[in-house]
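User: I'm new to structure prediction. If I give you an amino acid sequence, what do you actually give back? Let's try with this one:
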Amino acid sequence: MTTDPVITAKHLDLTFQTNDGPVHALKDVNLDIPQGSFVSFIGPSGCGKTTFLRCVAGLETPTGGTLTVNGMTPDEARRKRAYGYVFQAAGLYPWRTIGRNVALPLEIMGYSRSEQAERVARVLELVELSGFEKKFPWQLSGGMQQRASIARALSFDADILLMDEPFGALDEIVRDRLNEEVLRLWDKTVKTIAFVTHSIPEAVYLSTHIVVMSPRPGRITDVIESPLPKDRPLDIRDTPEFIEIAHRVREGLRAGYEE
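Assistant: Good question. You get back a string of structure tokens that encode the predicted 3D arrangement of the chain. For your 259 residues, that looks like this:
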């Protein structure tokens, strides 16, 4: 893993103008996300976690500071398809099969039918959904639909994967399984992953770095570099090292409220 940052924020601010006055979503955010890292963002609801991800994706425009993605502006990075985005809901079109849902970005980008078929087969195998190409979303469980959503984001092989609380609506057993799968995917694909979560155990289990954010206006109160090994069975969550990191995350969240 190299340590060159692929996402860099410097003194990033974002203020939304509303009928009730300005809303300060992000304030003086400074962050480097190293290439090949798995970075989780955790903080209370409304602290700007998703807003930061949307800024990286070029879906929101900061009102101050600078933000670069692969050395480009977020808009340039979006046009060059530098990232895949996995939303909180799977967002699959119910009238399209799983294969056709996964192929949608490839269709938009003008890939040939044969290239589409090859890429769809490859990413469905990656997320263990081979054989489900002709199924419709309603025929799959919530967890399988979210895996299909991840496959769609992987289909055009962007270097960066942005994941906005993709497992928040799933039960704990399915969530554990998908956490394991995401780590396996990250290991196989060597992507840089930025991941939003409300779960301390999920953030600690998945990440090389954990970004702890304060209540609005969203600021970074701590960036924790995980000492855990890359190979992480689920029972690593019972180890003293894991519990110590989780405690530091909890303290960072508490400190954000007290400032």
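You can read the tokens as a compact description of the fold. Here is one thing that stands out. Residues 240-258 form the longest helix (19 residues).
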